[in-house]
Amino acid sequence: MSAMAVGEKRVKSIDDSFQNASKVLVDIEGTTTSISFVKDTLFPYIRSNLQSYLKAHWNDAEFQQDLLLLKEQAKQDEADKVDGAVLIPEDNEDNTMEAVAKNVLWQMDLDRKTKALKQLQGHIMREGYKNGNLKGHVYSDVVPALKSWAHSGRRIYVYSSGSVEAQKLLFGHSEEGDLLDLFAGHFDTEVGPKVEPDSYVNIVKKLDCRSEDIVFLTDVPREAEAAQKAGLKAVIVVREGTELLTEEDKVSFPVIKSFHDFVFEASAKRKKMCTNDESPANGPISETSESSITEKNKAVKKTEEVSPESAGSGNTVSSSDCEMMDVSSNDAQVTDMEPDKTKIESQSTDDKTMAVEDSDTKESEKVELEPDDSEVCKTESSAPESKTVGAPDVEKESPKVCSENAEECDGKEVSVTSLTKLSAEVSKVDIDVKLNDSKADKKDSEAGETEVDIKGIPANEEETKVDAEETEAVGMSTKDKNVEVRISENDSRDGAELETVSGGSKNKSVGTISNCLESESGALETGSEEGKIDSCDEVAEVNAGDKKKFCDSRSASGDVKGDSCNEDANLEETEADTQNKKTDVNNTETEEKMETNTTEIENVKGINDEDVKDTEKNDRDTLAAEMEDEITEEMESSAKLGKNDVALKKKIDMESGGTANGREKGENTKPSEDLSVSEESGVTKSESEVATKTESDILNQTSEKQSDIDFSADASPENTDASPEESKTEGISEDPESTDKMLQDKMEDVSDAVKNEDSELLATSDNDTVKEDANANEDTKPLDSKNEGDEESKTAEDTAKENGLAFTTENGKGDVTNKCPDTEQNGEVTDKEQDVKIKKLSIDGSGNTSMTKDDVATPAVASGSS
Ligand SMILES: CSCCC(=O)C(=O)COP(=O)(O)O
Ligand SMILES: [Mg+2]
């Protein structure tokens, strides 16, 4: 436990570990809400309405349920010989009613937290909320803080002794309006008493996360202790009327006076992708929350002695560069919910309550968790979610990551349409995937690793370099043992797409690439089903929700079965063989094309002098020279594209400016369509098909098909309807063969350069946070490797560590965060961006990719290729 001295006192601070928490669990009374409201308003209302309520609802089925619980509790109290226990005799209605009233008042006098009492209280207060007599109190700092936490990617849950229904009534009818969207779920004493560690263990189970993923905020030290014992992080909130804290409490728990004192570093992803999102993680995000985050992050507060009277937060939350989204789901204890119920839940508290009552499952849900899709970035078109017992549906990771997920947030999910333009006009980057057996240690072995070398086409003839501070990442299905990734970029870098072709159609992955708007690093991001790699300066995340959503969309589109999308890939050696074959084919074809061009030139040069006059010889020589020049020009044109990239990035970043990626919710294209078209396009190939496909074939096909789809990363019309003509970039040869040949040559050179520089690059990389979930290997399998002995064979974690990447996995899904140098965050675009970037990626077995930030100085490939 970390504690810091302040004067002679010591208090526990909110250390970095709190930043790693992806969930926040809040108590109500004394934490979000004043004790006074509960004691002076709520409870008095219940007391004064008790008798009339009993009379009015005695025969209601709902009350009869309450009565049963009260009787059971009374019997238990009697058995436990609880002092002053008021029994409820099986008598006539009047006597029983009188006894019930006495029993309830007695329990309330003791502020008991029995389920029987809380359930009835909830029902009685419901009328007060509905008729407007009651308005739930919420401290003024709560809503902005919750929003900022949600905006930072955290999910917020409630755990109160008050029944779930009472919780919803309070927040749904609060003085600040309906706040229910802020919460991803609710827990009451159904999971156990708040002073019992087991209760928190139950919550951890229900959220399917690690205990340390949860920060619990409460005003009661005993509750904090219980949570801490269960492994949660606990923070004590000091409000008016809350318990006096002991010195031990202050050393054991961070203490805050306001929710503002607990600041989460905003996830880069959230900042990047949801800036304009009106419906953030758990609810709307206000400007206030945004600025709050910023200010708080800048602030460095002094830790002060905390007392109920003058409790200061004193706790500065140090930020971590990269936050990750949690990956969680509820377990079987989550109440079943009809598909349309979730919809109802997103409407109003009252409606929700009705929905619960109408359900055939439980009359009152004690644990209710909102679908995650609704939390981060709501999708307008999402199908009704259902909470099914046993189904991990509670927290559908979207991504938010933003929800991140692509299709919902600011248009981060882009269609593959742009590849039409991209492949036609640009700097083509081929990524060869090398699959390495992970042998280092068990963890690594389980995680598996795929290393990816990106062979780039030079941006210009200058010495090709990779900016050490620029990172680009490409993600793909880790199931894809053999993955061919093509990245094409056009002047709509924000939506550039990534396409992967695996050996087997099952593993096909069509991801997306999006610019890192905040870094100008031209980050590539995939929204593919297996991994989401964000090479942005600040963060890269692989979100299971993205995966699920992606899988779902694919499944819906008939692209692939959801199961096959989600399940671990069965990697077979034949896939690797296919990749190797394909490489061979490409190499051969490249050589052939080279020969063809050379022959053409030689044919011109080789015209028999005797057959021509001097003037004709001159013409011949001129023609040959012209041909050479033409080819050189083409080469240079290709190189210029790199410059175009830089200009485009600038342009996009400028356009996106303070509006994230410049996209509004709902502007995204339909992933399923994208995918299905991709499938049609032949991106997904059988092994044999892939083996015999040339790169240009596949690219051409992709270009043709993808032109049918909207490219939504950039909503501008000109970027969404890319015709082949429009796709052409000035200066680019329209002869695909000659261009291909030259590009192939360049690729070869770059590839060599990469290989030669690998060890050096790895050696110069620094170390950053590497965190791996204990469960990270659940869904992973060792990858067979076709590159045994490859010196680059490293674990994803190792590679990440060596290259300054935060490697993070969660819940077995694996998150990879890419910590990028601060300098990147300045968003400066330098001439370096004109250089070819050769990046190295490693993909672990669970679909996560970490990218090295290796920068490779490569030869001037443009000149070398000719
Ligand atoms: C909706 S909570 C009403 C207040 C209440 O009944 C209660 O017991 C509050 O307990 P908490 O665990 O929130 O401190
Ligand atoms: Mg409390």
Automatic annotation (TrEMBL):
Binding site for Mg(2+): 27, 29, 219
Region feature (Disordered): 274-405, 438-866
Names of required cofactors: Mg(2+)
CDD domains assigned to the protein according to its UniProt record, in alphabetical order: HAD_EP
Function according to Swiss-Prot or TrEMBL: Bifunctional enzyme that catalyzes the enolization of 2,3-diketo-5-methylthiopentyl-1-phosphate (DK-MTP-1-P) into the intermediate 2-hydroxy-3-keto-5-methylthiopentenyl-1-phosphate (HK-MTPenyl-1-P), which is then dephosphorylated to form the acireductone 1,2-dihydroxy-3-keto-5-methylthiopentene (DHK-MTPene).
GO cellular component: cytoplasm; nucleus
Lineage: Eukaryota, Metazoa, Ecdysozoa, Arthropoda, Hexapoda
Ranges annotated as biased composition (Acidic residues): 565-576, 626-636
Organism: Cryptotermes secundus
PANTHER family in alphabetical order: ENOLASE-PHOSPHATASE E1
Protein name stated in the entry: Enolase-phosphatase E1
Cellular compartments annotated: Cytoplasm; Nucleus
Pathway annotation: Amino-acid biosynthesis; L-methionine biosynthesis via salvage pathway; L-methionine from S-methyl-5-thio-alpha-D-ribose 1-phosphate: step 4/6; Amino-acid biosynthesis; L-methionine biosynthesis via salvage pathway; L-methionine from S-methyl-5-thio-alpha-D-ribose 1-phosphate: step 3/6
EC number(s) from the headed UniProt entry: 3.1.3.77
Residues given in the record as substrate binding sites: 160-161, 194
Coiled coil: none
UniProt xrefs under Gene3D superfamilies: 1.10.720.60, HAD superfamily/HAD-like
Complexes and interactors: Monomer.
Catalysed conversion reaction: 5-methylsulfanyl-2,3-dioxopentyl phosphate + H2O = 1,2-dihydroxy-5-(methylsulfanyl)pent-1-en-3-one + phosphate
Similarity field: Belongs to the HAD-like hydrolase superfamily. MasA/MtnC family.
Alphabetical keyword list: Amino-acid biosynthesis, Cytoplasm, Hydrolase, Magnesium, Metal-binding, Methionine biosynthesis, Nucleus
SUPFAM superfamilies, sorted: HAD-like
